[in-house]
Give the backbone structure.
Amino acid sequence: MTNYKYIFFSLILFFCSPLKSGEESLTFHGAYTFETFPKQKACAVYVSIFNNTDKDFIISSASSDISEKAEIHGIVIEKEITKMKKMENLLIQSKQQVFLQPGGIHLMLMGLKHQLKDGSSFDVRFILDDGSFNEIKVMVLNKKMRENFIE
Ligand SMILES: [Cu+2]
């Protein structure tokens, strides 16, 4: 009987141990973009990135099958004009999160190969400076939803 108890508690420890469940990489949540009109050549992708690990991560590039190019853009204000600027690196420190959202940092897909339709999805790959990558699914949302995201 004690043996069973021991096994039972070992199993609990196994499944609950932070070392075991602790993620080795970044976690991506809720990636989305908005549907495009027929000739639209670029779109912005938004996603929440969580680093639950003990290490810092640096995203150094991105790619997607649906576009020629993918760049991480930040926002800079020059002479009261808001501009997008390519970021060579995006640091996500240990136990921190970064939100790619309208009006802020975003992933820009340029040279779209086809129109993005509401309800469809596609994959995007975030490549880290150590050569590893995270592939995530991006949901295409109806343009009417945009009002709910941007003030
Ligand atoms: Cu941009």
User: Anything to note?
Assistant: The CA atoms of residues 102 and 150 lie 6 Å apart. The first helix runs from residue 2 to 16.
